[in-house]
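User: Study the chain.
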Amino acid sequence: MNRRQFIGIAAGTAAGFGLWRFTRSSASAGPPVGHARPSTASEVQTVEKSDSEWREELAPDAYKVLRKEGTEAPGSSALNAVKAKGEFQCAGCGLALFPSDYKYESGTGWPSFYDYIDGHLEFKTDFKMLMPRKEYHCARCGGHQGHVFKDGPDPTGLRYCNNGVALKFVPADDRDDQPA
């Protein structure tokens, strides 16, 4: 069973038991008015590496979060203070997950976003705290990013609460896709 099949089974099992299921109120009607969501034209190509390869490539704290679904201490990430234009990418594989325009100060101590780049996250239900929570991962490498909660700002009402160590910030001026 691959990662996508596991996430699909976990989501289906949670829905079958009547647990909180992630839905996007705008899913059928498109993005909320005044909210243009970046999207991808094609499916994200996955990256598969062995545990030892990940352990060798990632710093110990990033490995713990991205590969073992750990959580960093609140207030420990320098990304909390980032207000520049750019994008937040997966620290494991570099896939863009959040444009800086989606970041906001949630007061939780973790970088928080009200939406994500369509197709760049995958979801599953997490029972580690006994109550079900919706966990999200990078769609390319499967790296754990954080959890999504229904207490965010408009236009989505969602809060993507991310571990800073699972992200890297690339300023707009440094991105390869900038027009010349």
